[in-house]
Design goal:
By secondary structure, the chain is an all-alpha fold. It has one domain. 63% of the residues lie in helices and 0% in strands. The chain is built from nine helices and no strands. The protein is elongated. 38% of the residues are buried. Mean pLDDT is 80; it is low at 1-24 and 54-58.
Length: 279
């Protein structure tokens, strides 16, 4: 007998064997129209509205999984950002999702975020300690940014894998797309001119305040990602939406805590060391 997770029961609590998921003898309303699907296999279409698992497959999909291009990349970001509940329900969709495509999407979002965060870090460092010292510090700063981005994009995937849901494999594929919000990193370029003006105006702490502004913007991106992950968690585990959001926020605190030393602490130390060596 499997132990009950601390956050609540998994869906389909009578068994976790994939081969015997169907024909459970309890009420299961269709998520689309409310018709009772009791006794029907999970993959069966609703007799009332024709949707599969409460999800109309023709309407709900991941654009990037259908065709990998710039338009679908942007479309996937918009889906995760503005329709997180529909995104969360995709874990139960019988449509096939490509794991390789999902991994490529996560790598592209990391690349986009890394380019812009490294650019912002380099500009703040150059304005503080000079261009030459900033160039010496750049490789260490870029490595720190990459390690944090990779960690924060993997965190939702590991969190979803821990639910032990009968559709956890499909959910794992879908959870790669929670990294979408990292691709909002170009917004940092809009904030950069203002943050750079603070550095000469506040000689002692200007760089710290400038970095803090970008850190707050990064937290906003993470909160959007947490919302998408919470919607997936709600679909996989028998908890309320508020509890799902609370558990997801608690899991995300570790990545937020690591952001301070990785994105501010290490870049600052690298800049100071480069300045000292150049001097």
């Amino acid at each position: 007998m499997h132990p009950v997770p601390p956050y609540g029961r998994d869906f389909w609590p009578r068994t976790r064997r994939i081969e015997v998921q169907a024909d459970f003898d309890y009420d299961r309303p269709c998520g689309n129209c409310g018709y009772n699907l009791r006794g029907l296999p999970i993959s069966a279409s609703c007799p009332e509205c024709g949707s599969s698992g409460g999800i109309t497959v023709a309407d709900e999909t991941i654009p990037w999984d259908e065709q990998a291009n710039l338009v679908s990349f942007i479309g996937t970001i918009l889906l995760v950002m503005f329709r997180p509940r529909a995104f969360g329900k995709l874990s139960w969709s019988p449509e096939h999702f490509d794991m390789r495509a999902a991994r490529r999407f996560r790598r592209w979002t990391i690349l986009v975020a890394m380019v812009w965060l490294c650019f912002v870090t380099e500009q703040i460092t150059a304005a503080t300690v000079g261009f030459a010292a900033a160039m010496w510090a750049f490789p260490f700063q870029a490595a720190s940014v990459f390690l944090w981005l990779n960690s924060v994009s993997l965190a939702p995937i590991m969190f979803i894998k821990g639910t032990a849901s009968p559709v956890v494999r499909r959910a794992e594929v879908v959870s790669h797309y929670t990294s979408s919000l990292l691709a909002l990193a170009p917004l940092h370029a809009l904030l950069l001119p203002f943050s750079l003006r603070l550095i000469p105006q506040i000689p002692q702490a200007g760089w710290f305040i400038a970095s803090g502004l970008h850190f707050v913007l990064l937290l906003f991106q993470l909160l959007l990602s947490v919302n998408a992950t919470a919607c997936m968690f709600y679909e996989l585990v028998q908890v309320s939406r508020s509890r799902a959001l609370g558990y997801t926020l608690m899991e995300a605190m570790g990545t937020v805590g690591a952001a301070l030393p990785m994105l501010i602490g290490i870049p600052a130390l690298a800049a100071v060391a480069s300045k000292a060596l150049a001097g």
